[in-house]
Amino acid sequence: MAATRSAALKIDWANLGTKLGLRGNTAAALANFKKRNDDARRKVQVLSEQPQTVDFAHYRGLLKNQDVIADIEKQFNAFQPKKYDVQRQIKAIEAFEAQAVKSAEETKGKVDAELRDLEKTLKNIESARPFEDLTVEEVVAARPDIDKRVEQLVSKGRWQVPGYQEKFGNLSVL
Amino acid sequence: MSNFINVISPLDQFEVRNLLSLDAPILGNLSLSLTNIGLYLTIAGYLVFIIGLLSSNNNKIVPNAWSISQESIYATVHSIVTGQINEKNGQVYFPFMYVLFVFILVNNLIGMVPYSFAATSHFILTFSLSFTVVLGATILGFSKHGLKFFSLFVPAGCPLALLPLLVMIEFISYLARNVSLGLRLAANILSGHMLLNILSGFTYNIMTSGFLFFFLGLFPLAFIIAFSGLELGIAFIQAQVFVVLSCSYIKDGLDLH
Amino acid sequence: MPQLVPFFFVNQVVFAFAIFVMLIYVFSKYILPRFVRLFATRLFISKL
């Protein structure tokens, strides 16, 4: 118990948000969690400072009705702070943590792959000549299916690519 | 004899002359000869081919002024063909119409160059083109509809009593297409060139008659220049009209109204 | 009008049709498909 508490105390809440670059929902959830944690700790603090014993002898001398005192004393002595079985919850938290770590790792892999892809594209763009110098031959060399499509269109007697005029407008003078 | 004036007919510019000939007594009496109209037709064909080949901005995707003019002609003829014949299947006739348009246009424009020769001002040439187009459209109609092709001559919803007369009129108008298509083109080019020729002859005479007349002659000269601009427009419009009418005749052959 | 002389008539028509047919062949086989190819390429590029 002491170990976990110290671990909880060690968390640098102020830095956590900025360090991880959290934003939006996640940051709000974190702030909420911190508030709950603080509230719980304050409650424990307040409760543990209150006196935990009752001077029954004093009340016995004061009150005539000894039965009530005896009853209350019995009940007081019988009272045991309820023990919560934290173990189960910790287990659940651990399972959740494992799941979260796994999905985070997966996401990281995905992001890395995407990043590599983007870097490749960027290099492609940087090494490519400006768009003004791009020729039809180069594009067709990269995508031979353009030629296949043109052949198909022309052999069918179509002299316009469907969707072209919607995109680039009609140059017709009339 | 010294003040003999050589009067040149305004029609002289349209004379066909033999430039180069080879009389070869082989294959019967074959006589190969290059006339001036043949020369100018060859130049026009060469120009059409070279402009079509070279004005592509080195095959780049982004066009320059040359290739955008070509694309504009392409889109114009394409919209004529799809608009007149059929949105989808009419496109089969597009290459023919494109070449027809560009060929007539370039021949008209070559005719605008001073001292050159307007090949499209010759009725023989334009008639041969127009007769070919109409004859081709007729063959197309017969091959597609058989004898039902003759229903083209029957207007929809005409009274039976008037039928023989109307069929006669329709038939004559169908035959007149042959003539009117070629006549329109050649007559426009011929008349424009003749008018320019006559006007410039007058203006030349005025301007060479004296010092004051030289400045007086500037007015008809300005008129001639304006008229040349009009002729330039006519060169485009006649090529376009020829193609539009050819398309509508082909459509008649295909769809029978 | 010399173009009505049969010789010049035939000469003119032969020239016109030879050049015309040649142009139709060259254009429909080489030059006009190049336009379609250009359009198809542009359309492909714009979809990237």
Automatic annotation (TrEMBL), chain A:
Keyword Ion transport part of the UniProt annotation: yes
Function according to Swiss-Prot or TrEMBL: Mitochondrial membrane ATP synthase (F(1)F(0) ATP synthase or Complex V) produces ATP from ADP in the presence of a proton gradient across the membrane which is generated by electron transport complexes of the respiratory chain. F-type ATPases consist of two structural domains, F(1) - containing the extramembraneous catalytic core, and F(0) - containing the membrane proton channel, linked together by a central stalk and a peripheral stalk. During catalysis, ATP synthesis in the catalytic domain of F(1) is coupled via a rotary mechanism of the central stalk subunits to proton translocation.
Source species, domain of life: Eukaryota
Principal cellular location given in the protein's record: mitochondrion
Originating organism: Zasmidium cellare
Subcellular location: Mitochondrion inner membrane
Full protein name: ATP synthase subunit d, mitochondrial
Coiled-coil positions: 101-128
Record has Amino-acid biosynthesis as a keyword: no
Pfam families membership: Mt_ATP-synt_D
SUPFAM superfamilies hit by this protein: ATP synthase D chain-like
Similarity remark: Belongs to the ATPase d subunit family.
Annotated keywords: ATP synthesis, CF(0), Coiled coil, Hydrogen ion transport, Ion transport, Membrane, Mitochondrion, Mitochondrion inner membrane, Transport
InterPro entries per UniProt: ATP_synth_F0_dsu_mt, ATP_synth_F0_dsu_sf_mt
Automatic annotation (TrEMBL), chain B:
Transmembrane region(s): 37-54, 96-117, 123-142, 149-175, 181-199, 206-226
Keywords: ATP synthesis, CF(0), Hydrogen ion transport, Ion transport, Membrane, Mitochondrion, Transmembrane, Transmembrane helix, Transport
Molecular-function GO terms, alphabetical: proton-transporting ATP synthase activity, rotational mechanism
Domain of life of the source: Eukaryota
Localisation: Mitochondrion inner membrane
CC terms in the record's Gene Ontology section: mitochondrial inner membrane; proton-transporting ATP synthase complex
Major location category of this protein: mitochondrion
Similarity-based family: Belongs to the ATPase A chain family.
Name of this protein: ATP synthase subunit a
Gene designation per UniProt: atp6
From TrEMBL, chain C:
GO molecular function: proton-transporting ATP synthase activity, rotational mechanism
Gene Ontology cellular component terms for the protein in this record: mitochondrial inner membrane; proton-transporting ATP synthase complex
TM ranges: 6-27
Statement: the UniProt record of this protein carries the keyword Ribosomal protein: no
InterPro entries from the UniProt entry: ATP_synth_su8_fun
Superkingdom of source: Eukaryota
Keyword terms of this UniProt record: ATP synthesis, CF(0), Hydrogen ion transport, Ion transport, Membrane, Mitochondrion, Transmembrane, Transmembrane helix, Transport
A Pfam family matched in the record: Fun_ATP-synt_8
Membrane keyword on record: yes
Membrane topology: Single-pass membrane protein
Annotated compartments: Mitochondrion inner membrane; Mitochondrion membrane
Chief site of localization: mitochondrion
Family: Belongs to the ATPase protein 8 family.
Role of this protein: Mitochondrial membrane ATP synthase (F(1)F(0) ATP synthase or Complex V) produces ATP from ADP in the presence of a proton gradient across the membrane which is generated by electron transport complexes of the respiratory chain. F-type ATPases consist of two structural domains, F(1) - containing the extramembraneous catalytic core and F(0) - containing the membrane proton channel, linked together by a central stalk and a peripheral stalk. During catalysis, ATP synthesis in the catalytic domain of F(1) is coupled via a rotary mechanism of the central stalk subunits to proton translocation.
Oligomeric and partner information: F-type ATPases have 2 components, CF(1) - the catalytic core - and CF(0) - the membrane proton channel.
PANTHER family: ATP SYNTHASE PROTEIN 8
Name of this chain's protein: ATP synthase protein 8
Gene assigned in the entry: atp8
